[in-house]
């Protein structure tokens, strides 16, 4: 099958990163960030899914609004290293932000912009956002993302079917406008299927932000939050799910929630996962048809 050349939508060229301006902006422009949401609280952003766009064994591109993630699958490849399990295969994951995109310092301090909870060690480094530590801090976020994506997908791949083999997931974050962990999980799941890797089911993921409503002062839930919404959120819940099996593979929460709000957030995440699973399935069906190699939908 000829390679499908992907075309990114809504792209922009990032400005040079200036640490001093970023810190000043984060403390003086809080009000301007509170823009009105242009969709219902339970609605997802415009979605675009493409498969088989590189020469790798399998690949997928996911655009969730302005969040764009590319995943490539390398393998399965046989290896003789002693670190590889001889009775079953090994699944590896690497996440990397596109260099020189001006990664926001606020996402390192709050960790909400990426939709994940950083480890205590990463948070300690993030508290001192000096220019000499920017790359180290970004590396910490990338490692956290890789670990969470790996945890989400581990239950879906029967590694015993690939003894002495390594399957590598290479994720590249082209743009991050919120819910990036969910986008990474979706891209990785589609890329595995595109690479003809055996899976029990496609893993899908959804993110929900919890924040106070300015009009009613009551907590409200926002599905598929953007970067600015995540910065304002009091709590963020991310759920990865095997939809057909109804099995949760990852549940991540940052911020405190009452049991009632937590259950409501999880329920909304489940609804988002089920909807996303349908779109992923349609993307695979379209890819198998002649000339049909992408799916774009609005929910």
UniProtKB/TrEMBL annotation:
Assigned protein family: Belongs to the RNase PH family.
Residues annotated as signal peptide: none
Domain Exoribonuclease phosphorolytic: start-end pairs: 43-198, 201-265
Keyword Cytoplasm found: yes
Alphabetized Pfam families for the sequence: RNase_PH (PF01138), RNase_PH_C (PF03725)
Gene3D superfamilies: GHMP Kinase, N-terminal domain
Keywords, alphabetical: Cytoplasm, Exosome, Nucleus, RNA-binding, rRNA processing
Protein name: Complex component RRP41
InterPro entries the record matches: ExoRNase_PH_dom1 (IPR001247), ExoRNase_PH_dom2 (IPR015847), ExoRNase_PH_dom2_sf (IPR036345), PNPase/RNase_PH_dom_sf (IPR027408), Ribosomal_Su5_D2-typ_SF (IPR020568), RNase_PH (IPR050080)
Species in which this protein is naturally found: Seminavis robusta
GO CC annotation terms, alphabetical: cytoplasmic exosome (RNase complex); nuclear exosome (RNase complex); nucleolus
Subcellular location: Cytoplasm; Nucleus
GO molecular function list: RNA binding
Coiled-coil stretches: none
SUPFAM superfamilies: Ribonuclease PH domain 2-like, Ribosomal protein S5 domain 2-like
One GO biological process term: rRNA processing
